Predict the structure.
Amino acid sequence: MNAALTIAKREIRTYFNSPIAYIVLTVFLLLAGYLFFGSLFIERQADLRSYFNLMPLLLAFIVPAMAMRLIAEEKGSGSLEMLITMPVPDWQVIVGKFLAGMALLAVMVGLTLCYAATVMAVGPLDKGPAIGGYLGVLLMGGTYMAIGVMASTFTRNQIVAFIIAFAISFALYLFYRLLPFTPESLRPVLSYLSVESHFEAISKGVIDSRDIIYYLSVMVVSLVIATVSLESRKWK
Amino acid sequence: MPELMIQVENLTKVYGATRAVDDVSFNVRKGEVLGFLGPNGAGKSTTMKVLTCYLAPTGGRAKVAGFDVFDDSLEVRKHLGYLPEDTPLYKDMTVLEYLQFAAAMRGMASDRSAKRIKEIGGRCGLHEVAGKLVGELSRGYRQRAGLAQAMLDDPDILILDEPTSGLDPNQIVEIRQLIKEVGKEKTVILSTHILPEVQATCSRILIISSGKLVADGTPDELRARERGSRYRLVMEASGTTAEAVKARLVGIKGVSRCEPVRGEDGAHSFTLDAAGDEDLRKVLFRAAVDNKWTLLELHREAVSLETVFRNLTTREEVKS
Ligand SMILES: Nc1ncnc2c1ncn2[C@@H]1O[C@H](COP(=O)(O)OP(=O)(O)O)[C@@H](O)[C@H]1O
Ligand SMILES: [Mg+2]
């Protein structure tokens, strides 16, 4: 596991040495801030609901942009060959990259705690939904991040990696929106697969292990596929 | 430690329709510096990628330090230092940071890693650029950083893919010197498409062409394999044409080929190739006397390694 942490550390530094982290953080904070303060001043509502409500869609855009370079960039530059011929199992490379993405995500989400602080200054903050909401954002973001890492192993082109990750993430988001138009029999399946249905429950402050298991299993499956994809260079 | 550090048996690697490596077998003993020589696209890098566990072979097997590259890849990689072609290092790290990263990836304890970085950094002449970003290094320094990275954990085997390509002549001499020194204690495989490179650094040469191994031996053995010699002949022969002289020369036993070449005015110049080991100078001299040619120059040279290389690699290309 040490190698994964070494990789994560290096990767985090690279994020903050390049403009991409700052661009992504700025875009996210501006959009989230617009939504949040919009509801605060226009609807005179002092809560985080409109901010959290947008997260499933917003993160489906932002997280693939954070994850796209993680493997694809190294495939393009050739440094991946150096990295994976070190005496380190392939899965640690994937986990290290994923952890770096999660660190950036945590910084980004952490910065929006100032919105929560604003709400607390204006009126009483309902603790349950706030804690649940932030936990849900991290779980859902982690799910998108794992999908992004997986997509990044498929290609050396970062834009292609972004599009694949976005398509999968957006599909998982869309399932919930499509519920009213699907046959009755398919609804439980679609609802279970949708990132948003689980997020909705958590962000109400209802922390159910089934929702957490959903996110963790999508993460694990994506990271396993990513590892297999990295190893696929060795297929005969 | 096994005596055979690298064993390659019937190794084949196919990319789609390209047979990049085709049924190659060889062994490398401990302490050898093996030169992997071949024109571009011969399959050198591909072979190295299999040995370093980056790619799996399509067919055949390879063992490094006694471990199979496919089944025991982690063990293999622990015994290896690798410098890929074009030295793809992380450009946004300083040299020191890069070496620290490589040491951490190899699981080296921190006190040992600090000691080794200092030692290897000194040996590779990196101290003055330790704080510079890799992306800002000259090609020569980047190559040295790549070598330092490969030697960091004191591996038994070093695999270096075109370690001197793109360097200027002074840098080439320095890197060769470094490799030679390392080769005293380690097993080294280096690839190159330049012949003087292997002559300068290697104790053994493998020549590969279109994925096939076409020669394997010490530089002397390879020269001996390609027997025969070449003669340069300049003479005055008044009253005869170059054609007539050539006809006489070709008639001499042992001469396999005779080509008139441009030379001084009023003189005829020829290049002769002879297949056998026999020295034809006396025979040629006597032929000149018998024919009343005035011999101005007669020079014999043994086959150069360059000729061996050219013969071996172009023959293959003609075939395919
Ligand atoms: N990733 C790849 N996909 C398809 N063909 C490849 C790939 N890598 C190398 N080749 C082909 O395999 C052959 C051998 O390449 P390589 O091992 O790089 O040769 P060398 O290092 O001797 O120049 C070449 O014909 C090359 O075009
Ligand atoms: Mg090559």
